Amino acid sequence: MGIPIEVIESELVFLDEGRMPAWPGPIVRGTMLRPLRNRLCVLEQDMPDYCRGCQFNATCRYGRVLEPDRLMIDGHVRMGCRDGVRGLTFGTGRLDSPGGRVQPGNRLPVRFLFVGRAAIDLKMTVFETLRDVSQTATLGADHIRFGVDRNSIRRDSMNIIPDGFEVSPSQRDERVSLRLRLHSPLCLKSRSGQPRRETSRSSSRDFSHRRRYGSDAASIVTVPRLIRESLRIVRRVFDEIDPDVKWNDTAMFLDECLTLAERSEIDVSGLRATRQTRGSARKKARWELAGWIGEATLHDVPVIAIPWLIWAGVLGVGDSRNCGAGLWTITQLEMNQN
């Protein structure tokens, strides 16, 4: 027994010339959200700007999948994460367009990730909405019209199961070298270094304080950090998407894995910084989204961390995961046994 996952990829075709950001993931998500809310929200009128605090959040098909409020669903908040992990995320590749301009006929790969049965049940609604949106909506500040290439649709189904994270005792001391290739920006926040008591937790709606990024990849993108982020998203998927799936708690595993990862090294010379402006129509705010793209080489990585890294690359990690950020694939380069 596990949690079903479906990845559906397609391509959008631009019908006009215009400017587009290098990574249009947030724009595609923003274009889809309001029409989906109109179709799925149980409130036919007087819909609030956000689903947080809505008494129907636990049963509403939109709220539970796209804007889950763990306090309304569970009656309590785990690990300080009231905004639940999204069961449906929208992602895009990066555009390689000269001067940041697209031409008619240029294509944009899009990726829809459905995690859990409630999200998968929305597949037909999502693609009906995409079809309708492509006929009426536009993308970006230049209002670029687009179409959907239905012949480009590709589907992949999988299950994330607890047994997939077990490693035999004979493998616990093994280490590998990995190539991590990013498919979308990896946006990790740096830590302020201030004592916790001086840095009060800001509201998830406070855009002036939430997003603080480091500019030095070597100090932010470390092997322990990647492992920690991987365990965090996988653990949240198990705990929030389907709590009935039984699996071992990761607290002890995390300590062991991070201790082993202290010897790991990472070559970030293949990463480069990326920055772009992101906005929220509902909040009427804009901010800078910063991260890294490219690839990194990880050396002496504990084998026990590999399943977590693989699934984190499918699910997405870090800031703007709901727009498809933090996606990667890993390839094993060599095996070393101690």
TrEMBL record:
It comes from the Bacteria. Residues 195-207 have a biased composition (Basic and acidic residues). Residues 189-211 are annotated as: Disordered. This is CRISPR-associated protein Cas6 C-terminal domain-containing protein. It comes from Aporhodopirellula aestuarii. The lineage of its organism: Bacteria, Pseudomonadati, Planctomycetota, Planctomycetia, Pirellulales.
